[in-house]
Structures
1.
Amino acid sequence: MSVKRKELEECEEKGEDRKKLAGNLTNKLVEEKNEEEGKIVRLLEKENKSLKLEIEAGKTNMKELIEKNSQISGQLEEQLEKNGNLTIVTEENIKRHEALIKTLKAQHENILKESEHEVKALKRQAGNSTSIMKKEKKEHEVKVPLLEKETSIYEEEIRSLKLQIDEGKADVKAVTARHKQIFDKLKEKLECPVCMEIPRGGPVYVCPNGHFVCKECKSWSCPTCRVDMEDGKSLLAVMVIENIEHRCKFV
């Protein structure tokens, strides 16, 4: 009986441990999912901020070049106005100004191309980060149902264990009640009909008809059926009284 009770307690502890494990796994996966999504969002925000800064810097450079070009054009126009009264403009000055204009245009175009390349590269990086985030999100979406399924399995096992434990408790209770009933009947049969006490030790005398009497109250005849007692002793009665609980003799 004690072994069965111990097994039931172990089953109950095992069920609680499984439930705690399932809850811990679910909480851990949800925390990892939130942490990964937060990292990806922070990375995208950082890259977008860097991209905006670089675009603004490119716009500023372009604006400076345009202003510089306008200043040079204005200087050329002023120079031409100053030399408007001259009848001869040297070919060397004209070529020098044209070369300067071409150089400025080439620099302007190079800066625009570099800015476009940087913008495309940043867009590709942002696209890669987004694809990685979507992939990880899909993986989490796959893992979460699996964990939920495992959790439901654990909960079902725990419910089954609880039912088994309840059934075991009911069986133990029934067995305990049955044993108590049997012991009560044994005590009733072992009670001495003279002193109305259950013997605390042997020998226990028995008449030919099976009636018990303690050693203190034994006489020549059976107090129940009045036949001769003789010297019959019950070994079974001694074994029973040695294994049952007795009332305190001082009460």
2.
Amino acid sequence: MIPDMVSIFADPVRATDPFFQLLTDHTSVPVDQIRYIFLLSMGYPLGAIYRHGLAPSPTHIMSRHMVSTSIGLLFGLMCFGWVQMGVLFSVTGVCYAMLLLVPSKVVHIYTIVFAMASMSAAHIYRMMVDYGGWHLDFTGPLMLIVQRVTLTAFALHDGVARKEAQLNEDQKLMKLTEVPSLLEYWSYNYNFHTFLAGPTCTLKEYLNFVDGSNFKATPTQNGDGKIRTMYVHRVRRTRSGATCVVCSDHNTPQIAPLLSHTSGAGDTISHGQHPSP
């Protein structure tokens, strides 16, 4: 039964479960992990469309921000639902308010304290409700968001509250001289390229990616300039990632007995279960 749009909007996780359950039935991989892997894999074709359909240009900057953020939020809602995404919205919202309201001399301290406290509370809650479990939840993206909001606060502190002579070369390159717009901040935190699994970059690097200034022109034989391509690097990294997945899946049966052996004689530990006392 195909869910209607209202049910999909109200509960994206449950509404899309039947589709991912079909994959789970054929692979025996938990549905939450199947969903996560599927959405990560969708980043490849979507990234190609994003690169060529919205090529970096001054007229495409806002469109690239909006498209990237919208897809990332859709991925998040499909993985975690409204309640867990609401926690992430709260963290980024408070940290953005700090950028606007807290003096630049201390904004980095306030931000890192709040972000680390939020992450610690989330992990403690996870231990209380799912101790030893393997269920995917918002704590993964939250750890990435903590890195991003902290990097942004420190970059603003470097660019506004510190003198140029006090900065090293990296800080000079990545500093911010003004608070980013709300769209830039949300795009940085929720873009589909890095929201689910990273990697983390600085806000300056992300903005350079969006406007295309990180692509260096290289001369051709005819003397024309062309945008540097990354296809070879993408293929290599994809191949490396696939190799790691295959090796991990192949070695899981060999690793499991070792884990059960370390838990004590006759004890076994399965996903979501506690070791025997």
